[in-house]
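Records of this kind hold a single protein each, on a pair of labelled lines. With that in mind, the following record should read easily:
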Amino acid sequence: MSGIRTKWPKERLEGEVQPALRASTTVDEAARRLGISEASLRSVCKSYSIPYRKMLGTMTGEEPPDLARQVRELRTRVRELEEGALTDERVKREIIGVKEADPRPPDWLIETAKAKKAPGVPVLFATDWHWDETVEPGQIGGVNRYSREIAHARAKAFIANAIDVLTQHMVCPEYPGIVLAIGGDMISGEIHEELTATNEAPVLASVLDLFPVLAWAITQLADRFGNVFVPAVAGNHGRITQKIRTKGRAFTSLDWLLYQFLAKRFDGDKRVAFQIPDGPDALFSVYGHRFLLTHGDTLGKGGDGIIGALGPILRGDTKKRSRNAQIDQGYDTLAIGHFHTLIQMQRVIVGGSLKGYDEFASSLSLPFEPPRQALWIVHPDHGITFSVPVIVEKSRKARPSTSWVSWQEAAA
């Protein structure tokens, strides 16, 4: 340190070092002013116990020309960053071109005067399509097969069979519209190494292939029922991050991006309205019956071979009801996907899957679950009055021909 002290005697500190620090915003800038290295300046300051960090940028009076220029440049740069920030709203409005959604639900979900004699409003639940995932029958005892071609066929059967049930098997099938709830995990994604290796296509190609299918489905429902309301939430498989995020979850999901493109596709079609939340939950009401739509991966894990997934589902529902009641966002029925099983109750509806039984379920010896989705009707006076599964594929198991009812006589 003697060399440094010789070069920078104490009497020169006030005349050169301290003014350089006050006129600079960084130690490196002050060192350049003095013609020495940053390390040397730090050594000088430390050897004389100069609080150099506190002294930076403290010069009073007129700023030196170069410092004023730097301030102007920084302010300009901040404005440029603010104007060019790629926020979720800018993605929706400028890049995708989606207008700000109307926060009010469609009138036909609320008005009941014309619906007293009709069954009510049907709610069709599309969830867990896992587009482009492959399921090999040889690995699961031949009970299921899944591919892009099969997914196309099942999606078309899903819409066709739902329309058939609602129009050909109901008394007075007059509806003010239909709700198409989308529960997430619509594409397989690449969140696991085995999916990356076995998916039929990369994730962006999956989105491009699924988009026209969903657009066709919404068009078919609008043509048949007049109005379509589409609440849609993101799942966990479509994420583009390694781990699921609690902050910005929707904005890192290809599900969310797919829904935004669909909203753009139907922009201007007054028959179709979307609800695409920025968070994991969508709250909406049909004739005053309150639904909370969420994917279901946040409800918890667990279950066993006796009650299956009901344990974590009902525990998660209880916690979510308690939380929502505290913030004045209560609901009557929770609608979820994620668990790939069909459960239709008044309190909870689990929507099944289009993919059906797979290698993962088989490895855990989970009960067999065929590919199917949920459909229910909400009456203006009685709430949910009719629930039925929508079958998307014929049974692979042949059943023997029997009489319409049979019983065994008791032994004498």
The longest helix spans residues 203-225. The first strand starts at residue 121 and ends at 126.
